[in-house]
Amino acid sequence: MRQEFIAALFTAFVAPAAADDVAPGGTIRAVYIGTNPAQATRDAATGTTRGPSYDLTVELGKRLGIAVDMKPVAGPAAVIAAVSGGEADIGFIAFEPSRAGTIDFSQTYLLVQQSFIVLDGSSIRTIADIDRPGQKIAGVRDDSISLYLRRHLKQATLVEIANNPPETKRMLASKEIDAFGASRPRLSALVAEIPGTRLVPDNLFGVPQTVILPKGKAAALETVNRFIDDARASGFLKAAIEKSGVVGLEVAPGGSWKPTAP
Predict the structure, then answer these.
(1) Mean pLDDT across the chain, nearest whole number?
(2) Of 27, 122, 134, 223, which is least packed with CB atoms within 10 Å of its CB?
């Protein structure tokens, strides 16, 4: 009942003008990273999309009274290019200061916990064991965890690799790398696919997931931020995460519309 009441207030008092601000063309054109299950996934056979970011976009369209067209793209750079180039109205990526410039970030709506996968016999038991001399710690090039490790590793060596699961498996098995870092959703899938590996039990940090809009659209950004506040307060975000079944996701706490990098 509370969720419906908040949605009704939003629709009655915000939607008419806000729809033009967010999506001048009358349809919310949204893009997300197609390989990131923490955002959304699309069934290749049916074309059905599901996931927290998809549910959030559909709900925003519903409250604004307009249609939604959501598409997957290759990675963060493609999301930014689509939004800044006018091909999309909103996009979903993790907040990272180095990505700012042609787009604006909303407040954080959820956190995606990051950790590492290692071989069963590895001496790495917790996150505290990661940054040690002589160890090679891998992450996908320019992924959130790699950007974090660039800033924070002091003794271990960061190895940035392509987003290529078969190659990641080979490097782990051959001990070319001591650990591979990524989001818990991705790592959980890898552990299931690679015998003799395990997931480190604790988390390195939570990646702040945000909505991005073209630079300078202050009114549209405020609409999206208020919508995220409503989605959090009503329980919609929590329900969307639970519905997705994806591990390692948490509703981001409210209190600030300005995201910060870990």
Answers:
(1) 91
(2) 134
